[in-house]
Each structure stands twice: as C-alpha cells, then as structure tokens.
Amino acid sequence: MSVFYDKFNRHAEGAGLKGNSTHYCPGCGHGLAHKYLAEAIEELGIQDSTVLVSPVGCSVFAYYYFDVGNTQAAHGRAPAVALGHKLSNPEATVISYQGDGDLASIGLAETVSAAQLGAPITVIFINNAIYGMTGGQMAPTTLMGQQTATSPDGRSMFNGQPMRMAELIAGLEGPVYVDRVALFDAKNRRLAKKAIKKAVQMQVEGRGYAFVEVLAECPTHLRMEPADAEKWVKENMTPIFPLGVKKDLTVEPWWKRPAPDFEPAHMLKAVGASQEATNRHAEAFPTHINPLDISLKLAGSGGDGAQTAAMLIARAAINEGFDATHIPSYGPESRGGTSYADVHVAKDEVLNPASPHPDILIAFNAPSLAKFGPTVVKGGTIVYDSSIVKEVPAGIDPSVKVVGVPFTEIAVDLGKAVVKNIVALGALQAATQLFPKDTLLAAVRQALKDKCALIPLNEEAFAWGVKAVEALGK
Amino acid sequence: MAQLKERPKPFLLPDYCKGCGRCISACAKGCITFDKEIDAATGYVPVVIDLEACNACGLCMDACPEPYGLRETPADVDFELQDPAKLFGGKKSTAPTPVDIPNQRIPLPKSEPLVIKGNYASAIGALLAGCRHVFGYPITPSTEGAELMAKLLPKLDGTFLQAVSEVATVNHMYGSGGAGYPCMTFTSSPGFSLMLEGVSYMVGAEIPGVFVNVMRGGPGLGNIAPEQSDVKLACRGLGHGNTHAITLMPSTPQEMLDLTMLAFELTFKYRNPVVILGDGYLGQMTGKVTLPDFMIKPGIPTWAVNGDAMHRGNLISSIYLSEQDLEAHNVYLNDKYRRMIEAESRCETFMADDAEILIIAANTPARASKGAVQDLRQKGIKAGLFRPITVWPFPVKQLAKELAHVKQVVVVEASNGQLEDEVRLALSNHGVTQLPAFSHVRHFGGMLPQQTEVLAHIQALLAKEAK
Ligand SMILES: Cc1ncc(C[n+]2csc(CCOP(=O)(O)OP(=O)(O)O)c2C)c(N)n1
Ligand code: SF4
Ligand code: SF4
Ligand code: SF4
C-alpha cells in the first residue's frame, strides 16, 4: 500500500513503534477508513494528484499517514479549504476527511454549502456518535439516551435529536453520490471500501460532489471493547442511521476549468483601459473659480443622476490632465432616498476629496438646496432645478450666484427625463465656465461609447442646459 | 515462488498489533486468538494466527485498522525475517524535490488613466498582481470589489466564488493560498472579524493571502459609513496566538491599486497574510488611476500543496504539538515579523522636513490633513504631515527622525485613538520616551475629521501657546 508512508515520520519523528502504527486507539474506526481511502487512491492511480484535507478531531493527524499533498484545516472548515484547493487547482483530487463534531456541528454551514455547490470534491464523514479528541462529549450524532461527558444523564429532548447527515446531504441538489456505510462486519467493510472508492472516482471523473458517511467505532469513549463497540454500532446506530446509498445520480462528466489567462491585451480590455489618448480642450486650469482646487457638490435624490454627472465631471477633469475625485454618499434605501456627490478638481493633486464648503453646488431638489445652499463659499455658484424647486431658501450668502434652470422640464420636453443631469451639466458649464464645452461633451461621449445611439440626445440636453443659462443672462 | 496465484496468508509483526481483536471476530475459521502475554514494547496483548487452519480468505486483513498491522505475507521476503526495516521500511518517498516556478513579469502597454473607485482600483491591482482566485461575501462598503471580480474573472478564466460566509471565505483562501495561488478577498469590518480565525491559521501555516478591509463604523453592525475602526484589530488582534501581518493603509484610489499589488508581492515574500485597511470613503471614492507598465503571471512556490507529484511531500498545517516545537515555530515567526519591521515600514511625508506641528494621519483623514497642512503653510505656519503607509509595522524610525524638530503632534483619525495608540506604542518600543505635546482630532461612528476642523484645532493650539 504505497499511499501510506512507509514510515510515519510526522508521528513522533517516526521513531520507535510510532513509526509504523497510528495514533488511534486500538480498534478505532478511523484506521479502517484510512486503509480503505489509501487503497482507493492507490487503485485509482491518483496519488500524485491528491490533496487530503485533515480536520480537527482525532483524525487531525491524517496527514501523518497519507503520502499525498496534505492540508490541515481549522475545526469544521475542511470543506471550505477543500473548495479553495479544488477551485484553484481543478485537476487535483481533493478529499475532505471529517468527524461528526467537525462536519455536523461547527462546520455545518461549510458542509452544507459545499455540498450544494456541487463542485467535485469527496467528503469522508466519520460518524462515531461522539467527540473523540476532546474526551467523549456529545456530538450532533449522539443517540437519544446515550451518555457522554456533556450529556451525563443521556441525551434528552433538551439536547435535540441525532442529526442524519447523509439524508440531509442527499436532500440537496448539489451532490451526485451520497452513501452511508459501516465497519462492523466483513460485508459492511467491503461495502465501505467500495463506497469510498466510488466517491473518489466520481470526483476523478469530474461528475460532482460525493459524500460517504462511515458509521465508525470509538471504543474508547463508548467505554467498550472494540468487538462490543462493533455490536453497539450495529444494534444502536443503524436503526437511527440506516445504511445504504442515499443518492446516486447518473451525471456526465462536466467539471472542466480553463487555465487562468495572463494575456496583457485581455487584461487591458477587461478593465476598460484605453490606449487612445483623449483630446484636450482646456487651455489652463479654471483658476477663476479657485486657483488650485475646485470643490463641487451635487445633491438630489436617487434617480436624479447626480452620481453620473459627478463622475462625468471627474472624468472630464482627468482627461484634461488635472486630478479629480468623486465621493458618493447615499441613504440606506436602494432606490430613491438622498444621493449626494462630492467632487474635487485640482490643478495638481486633490488633497482633500470632501466638499463640506463647495465652490459649486448643483441641487436637484428643494431639500438639497436648503441643506447645502448655505454651505457654498462666498462668491460661489449654485445651479438648481427650477422645475422642482419653486423657491430659493434663505441662508445663502448674497455673494453666491444662484441660477435656476428647469432641468426636468427640458429633459421631459426632449423625451427622456433621465437626461436632466446632462441638462444640469450644460447649465453648470454655462454658469461657471468650469471647462470648455467639448471637455464635458467628450466625457459624455466616452461614457456612452457602448450606447452610441444615445449620444445625440445627450448632446442636445447639454446644449439646452447651456442655452437656458445664457437666456437668463447670467 | 512457484505458486504466485495463491492468495497470501496474513502476516503480523506483534509489535505493530494493538490487540484490538477486530481480526478475531472477522475470522470465520477461528484461526486468530489473543496471545498469552503482553508485548513488552507496546503494552498491548497482540494476536496470534494459526496459519495451518487459515484459508487465506483475507477478511482479517480488511478488519485490521492498522496500516502496518495485519497484512499480506510479502511474497518475495523470507517469512522468517523479523526485521521490520528490511520487511517494510526504508522506501524513500518517490516524490521529486519541489523547485520554485518563479513569477513572470509581463510588460503592459501604456494606457490612459482610468477613472475608477477605490474598490475597483484594488480589484484591478489584484488582477495585475496575478490573482485569479477571489472569494468573498458581500458587505458594504467593499462590495464593488467583489462585484468587479465576479464580472472580470470569468473573462480571464479565473474564479470568483461567493462564499457562504466570511468564515468560509477565509478558509477558501487557506486552501487556495496553500495550493500556492495568489488569492484575495474584499470585506468590511464585521466581515473581517469573522475571518480572523482563519487569518490566525494562515499565519500559523504560513499561507499567503490578501485581505482588503474597507473599514466601516462599529462596534457591532454599526453603520456603513467610513471609520478607522479596525486598526487595533489588524495590528494587535489577528485571531488567536502570536500573529502579525503587514497592514497597509492607502489614501487614494491610485494607492488602492499600487498597494494591492505590493500586498501580493509581500504576502508571498513572507508567506504571511497581508491586510489592506481602507476606509469606507476610499472604497467608494473615484479618482484617477494609472496602470503600471507590467503585470504578474504567478509561478508556484516550492512549499505549495499543489496536488501534483512534485509537491506531494508538502504539508500545510499550523500544528506544533510539542511545546518546544511550537516555541521554535514562534521564535521563527517572530524573527519573520522582525524582518518585516526592518524592511517593510513605509510612510509618506508632506512638508514635514521643517515642520513644528506634525499631523499623523492615514487613509482619507490623511487627505483632509494634507489639505489642512496646505492651508496652514499659506498662513505661514510650519505644519507637516506624516502618513504611515504601513500601520503595522509602524514606520517608527522615520517618525522618530521627524520628531527632532517637532513641537506638537496632532493625530487625526476616524477612531477613538486606535492610531494614536499605535504611534505611542511604536515610539515607546523604539525607546522614544521624551515626546512632544500630543493632541488629536477624532471622529468615529462613521464621520471623518474634516480639513476645517484640523485647521481650527491647530489654530487653537497656537493661540493657546501664544498666551
Ligand atoms: C474552534 C474550535 N472549537 C473547538 C475545538 C476543540 N475540539 C477539538 S476536536 C473536537 C471534537 C471533534 O469531534 P469529531 O469531529 O466528532 O471527531 P472525532 O474526534 O470524534 O474523530 C473539538 C470540539 C477546536 N479545536 N476548535
Ligand atoms: S478517541 Fe475514539 S475516535 Fe478517537 S482515536 Fe480513540 S477510538 Fe478513535
Ligand atoms: S485470512 Fe481468513 S482464515 Fe486466515 S486468519 Fe484471516 S480471516 Fe482467518
Ligand atoms: S485487528 Fe490488527 S491491531 Fe487489531 S488485534 Fe488484529 S492484528 Fe492486532
């Protein structure tokens, strides 16, 4: 059996007897399950592609014995670790070997979700109805009435009833093969060996997730001789945990994953990096607004397009070779609710991206104008939607230029209310001369490069925003 | 060797028998019984087999739980030979010695700057660093990172898995990183705390992995607004045990990309997780991001459990059962931490060379502070900024040097003193006990200190001094 190390070097450095015997108690079912698993790996010829995930529990040291790639996982997390291996390395055969405390208690979420995901991994589940390693405490699989260190008077209704994992897993859509086997007599040992091999084979063939529950003996914590423990499992466990195949689907091999792509061109395309330089239109930084760093705030409610407009301003500035930032802030609602954007445009570097005292405010509704109007700096500019805001509130510094443009009416007239933010951009441009018109329009076109049909409408919206301000003579 | 076809009879070295008796009940012919005496070497009573009566059915061997317990009698060995070394032992592992498959640096053509959010920038940084395996569980304000990965990774034949929880996430990373692949996650404070169990295991087992924690307001569910609430967690509390991880604090979308790339380099260099602490603002903030002129195609390190022949002999585990071994492992880990402290302490200064008032701040608060420094300089006040880029290891040598000309330190942060504690602890450990006056501007609960507040605080300090 070459899948076992010839010497268990990890066990007490392989010294003395421990170099060739397991750390399990005499008669422990783990040893048998190990043997059948090693034989399966051997017979399937997959020693060089197998990763075994050892759990927490008595089999925490499974890696002492198996001459395959080994990973030891945290209590209950073995299926998640196994998936990490399998998804990174689709060719590997990944086997998660777990006890009942590990699989059915602390790691229940990882167990169920990995099974439902259905990726081909193999889970070998040792159900000995008790916690071995920590000294015989109650497991989720402990039988009713069974005395354990933490159910000294026997498991009662107060502790809930034993968990039937094979049935639970078989009830999920993900798994292709679920079986429950036992080790207490020759016939069942043969079936156990077959089931373990089949569960690994299902993975090797790329057919899907497979789960084998093994009813195993823990003579130590049952406080029995191994022969009596075999009898106990047969007589007491099998009525609660009926043996046999719970699910065996005919699934064609489907698991195939390509090797990751490291082609620079694909990378640049995926992230939307353009190699085409954008034209510059601005002659200089708009120092007439602020010499180094212009701060803007766009405020409205979700759906007004404040964030998109903010993004277009930032993009326009960056196209011109300036620095820019945009910070969105929303209410907790997914739709509607408040929606504010802080934008900075800086000659060299935006130092502080927040706009508590903006040079420019674009307000899409009355609450926004009321809230932020008074924060605009002396000599700043406010552009607001006069279709929505009927009265300019008090508290705005008299030096601030306040321009009302009917964003919504213009947009509705153009046939698409959603372009009101582009009307606002036109108005912004006309009211502040932030950038040349082409700068903003180029950003709009860039944003719509995949929806070219919308470009003329947006250009028109922009032009109407400009015209509306010009008509006001401001 | 005439009768090769004959089924082999069972064979047992009494020293490898634990006397469990499972073979006894397995033998229908009743050939196996317990020996009369306890084996002196094992303390167990082994079995004896009556090979005369045995029909070589093999059932006893199937029943023996020991790999080297009851076995088939080796055909080609003299049965009398009782020397285990000659019987079974001595086979050398057939696994080849693993060799490092190094990373490849692939040139990237120049492109126009991207205008993207911090979260996106970090995701793109990870892709450029060669990461094709991303695991995560959605949490605001970090989700855009995972969303972009879910969109882009299929195009690059990579894998994004939405895990069932943060607990599962970090364990997917444990498997993926353990297999030698660059992997990462995006999370935010409540998610990061759930991952810490796994982070500790990764540190113990020396597994690389990058954690982008876009911090939000706590404790508990708190809110989704920016805070620097996890500085202490990252610096002093990465799960149980003696853990540390390089913790980077970017302050711009560009740095979200650059430091994510750096994080991948460092996580493999040290075989240790690396944490990126952003704040909620930074994750959501859009800015100008220039791509580097290269990308990485990762290799496979020698230590990986890669599920192939070459790496078969490897083990990923954090178990050191003997106290001496665990102490030795911790001495080794601590030495690694010391090497990180020596080589990876990073910071940026802004007008700090002659500063008399030095602001210390990281993430977005550092940007507000930078603005304040500019305001103060315009007013002729000698202010400067010291921005730790690694908060662990804290760049204390660099800071200590600046302190020579500093009269006042002002720590600006979005937490109740977590950064200031790191500053003070680092200085104290560094032997700096004569500190300049310390004061601070703090907000927490999801608010960030504002430029105007920093400015006002420092002006008030100066006014007090003038009196
Ligand atoms: C997070 C965590 N909680 C608790 C433990 C302690 N612990 C170690 S083994 C174990 C029970 C294992 O029982 P089981 O999975 O049934 O395996 P067995 O020992 O029976 O083979 C527990 C609770 C741990 N190691 N980690
Ligand atoms: S305690 Fe039980 S499960 Fe653990 S090794 Fe002993 S017999 Fe096996
Ligand atoms: S091989 Fe069969 S007959 Fe012989 S000892 Fe074993 S179980 Fe008994
Ligand atoms: S089953 Fe194996 S370990 Fe148990 S008594 Fe028989 S030979 Fe010994």
Automatic annotation (TrEMBL), chain A:
Q: Name one GO molecular function term.
A: thiamine pyrophosphate binding
| Keyword RNA-binding applies | no
Enumerate the UniProt keywords alphabetically: Oxidoreductase
Domain Pyruvate/ketoisovalerate oxidoreductase catalytic, first and last residues per copy: 302-465
| Pfam families referenced in this protein's UniProt entry, alphabetically | POR (PF01558), TPP_enzyme_C (PF02775)
Which GO biological process annotations does it have? cellular respiration; small molecule metabolic process
Q: Which residues form the Thiamine pyrophosphate enzyme TPP-binding domain?
A: 65-214
> What domain of life does the native source organism fall in?
Bacteria
**Protein's UniProt keywords contain Oxidoreductase:** yes
Q: Which InterPro entries match?
A: 2-oxoacid:Fd_oxidoreductase, Pyrv/ketoisovalerate_OxRed_cat, Pyrv_flavodox_OxRed_cen, THDP-binding, TPP_enzyme_TPP-bd
Give me the segments passing through the membrane: none
**Which PANTHER family does its entry note?**
2-OXOGLUTARATE OXIDOREDUCTASE SUBUNIT KORB-RELATED, SUBUNIT OF PYRUVATE:FLAVODOXIN OXIDOREDUCTASE
Provide the protein name. Ketoisovalerate oxidoreductase
Species whose genome carries this gene:
Mesoterricola sediminis
UniProtKB/TrEMBL annotation, chain B:
Q: What is this protein called?
A: 3-methyl-2-oxobutanoate dehydrogenase subunit VorB
- Gene3D superfamilies named in the record: 3.30.70.20, 3.40.50.920, 3.40.50.970
Extract the SUPFAM superfamilies matched here: 4Fe-4S ferredoxins, Thiamin diphosphate-binding fold (THDP-binding), TK C-terminal domain-like
Could you tell me the keywords of this UniProt record? Answer: Iron, Iron-sulfur, Metal-binding, Oxidoreductase
Output the Gene Ontology terms for molecular function.
Answer: iron-sulfur cluster binding; metal ion binding; oxidoreductase activity
Task: Read off the PROSITE patterns from this record.
Answer: 4FE4S_FER_1 (PS00198), 4FE4S_FER_2 (PS51379)
Give the matching Pfam families: Fer4_7, PFOR_II, POR_N
Q: Which residues form the 4Fe-4S ferredoxin-type domain?
A: 8-37, 45-75
Top-level taxonomic group: Bacteria
